[in-house]
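Honest question from a wet-lab person: if I give you the sequences of every part of a complex, can you actually get the arrangement of the whole thing, not just the pieces? Trying it with mine:
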Amino acid sequence: MPAVTPQLEPGEPTDLELMHGIQQEDPEALSKLYDRYNGIIKALILRVVHNEAEADDLLQEIFMELWNQAKNFSAQKGKPLGWMVTLARRRAIDGLRKKQAYMRAGERLQQETEQQPDAWVHNATEEEINFSDTRVLIRKVISSLPPAQQQAIDLAFFRGMSQREIAANTNTPLGTVKTRLELGLKKIYDGLKELKDEL
Amino acid sequence: MSFDEFQNRARLYVIGALDDGEYREFEEARREFGEPAEAFITECYRLHEAFALSLRPAKSSDALKQRLMKMVRERKQGDAC
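Yes, you can. This is the full assembly:
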């Protein structure tokens, strides 16, 4: 699968070099990593919690955790961005659950699920930032999926819903949800591999 | 479980979508397949990066970064004492 990280300017430290800097307790390394990824990490958190103030709090907590837990990072187990995203997603979903934000899940989910298929597609253009080409290519892969598969993956990844929860919340048979997730994830995984040359 | 089935499960595993029974079977297969299984799971975590990078970056205030860096420096000083 391709590296989906942004292209760096010549002389810029790589993510891995920055992680090594953080492991050596260099605040400047954290500052650079923050500048590089705070937008992506906050977007991910916002997608989960849907609240600007909570997202800011979580963003700060996550980068603080990154600083505190940096020694646990191992390049053999993946890239720094993957580690950050995994950490951020877990914290955001935990935050969501703690606040019992699912209390109004029925009506909110109804609104959001109606928007889901193009929620991913919706942000497809704009911004001349380092990620834009990568983002467009990834979106191309994701948006090639049938809306029902996009929705199932969205609810699993960004809401932390189990297959049973997805089935219950979307009034879909469990077997159908399983199939949608399996097919959708495989297509994205395969699609990302095919992007290798383009990236 | 075949390795193909394991791969399907691994993609579900990394997004936390396995049910309890599937999770137990997955862990069993993971032990049986060993190193190739671990390598595949690591690859699957790239899906996390891809999903995150598919989102339009959100803006944060400069004040937030300043607070964070202040906390980091204080933490570092505290650790050094």
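Two things worth pointing out. Chain A touches chain B through 64 residues (CB under 8 Å). The first helix of chain A runs from residue 15 to 23.
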